[in-house]
Design goal:
It is a single chain. The strands form 3 sheets. A 6-stranded antiparallel β-sheet has the order 11-12-13-10-15-14. A 5-stranded antiparallel β-sheet has the order 3-4-5-2-6. A 4-stranded antiparallel β-sheet has the order 1-7-9-8. It starts with a strand and ends in a 15-residue tail after the last strand. The radius of gyration is 19 Å and the shape is globular. The longest helix has 12 residues. Strand 3 and strand 4 form a beta hairpin. It folds into 2 domains: about 140 residues, Gyrase A, domain 2, CATH 3.30.1360; about 70 residues, Elongation Factor Tu (Ef-tu), domain 3. It is built from 7 helices and 15 strands. Helix content is about 20%, strand content about 30%. With about 280 residues, the protein is α+β, with helices and mostly antiparallel strands.
Length: about 280
Amino acid sequence: MSQTLILLNERAVLLVGGPEAAPFLQGLVTADISKLEDGGATHAGLLTPQGKILFDFFIVRQGGGFFIDCAASQKQGLMQRLAMYRLRADVEIAGRDDLAVAAGIGRGKPEMDGAIIYPDPRLAQMGWRVIGDAKELAKTAGGSAQAYHEKRIALGLPDSDSDIGSGEVFPHEADFDQLGGVSFTKGCYVGQEVVSRMQHRGTARARIVPVIFEAGTPASGDEIRADGKKIGHILSTAGSKGLALVRLDRAQKALDSGHALTAGQTGVHLVKPDWAGFDVPVEGK
């Protein structure tokens, strides 16, 4: 498969700069940005004090600043939240409407003069991400966003808008601990105590995992049930595949008892992604 560059209109770009940009972000977000070299990137989140994800995004270190690739629907809210925490820090927070985001999901590194191009920090199989001139990307990125979402769903990667949302799930539930989105060795950040407690006590019982549908495609939000009891719900879908937030302990109990998982009239089968370090209940195992 040759390189396919896909414009992601649902993404937006912010720039956090200034002499204190690095310590400012380091004290807020889940990932350890102190380890980022120039051009390096990480996936990260900004949490509520109770530990749920308010915003998730990619952070790219570039020169003395940090570009943030976030959901366009969350751009203003994220800027406001960052400004709230800024206080007297010597930090500048600016929307960069002149820039856009694209994904390269084929073979080889994309090429674009003046663009920031970096491998998707969650999973190498997801290819490359590009932050570049909005007008130039509109002309050169000809792929379909559907192809991007089909690939991420097949790999089990949650999306900001379709799967994670805002204030709904904990980092472990969105698999941040598996995909490099949270550090357990850095210092404090907003919501850190709750996340650390979940990690050390092993209390993450719900996870976003890939699913396969037997027939038809359930709608986002449809309940997954077993023996008449809700054990999760459908998130984003692409044909016979999707993602779902599932109580894995309840799914295991249902399967052990011989009960099928369904969403409406459709059978649902859980899939353990290759990157997962946790158990996923699968029929026959």
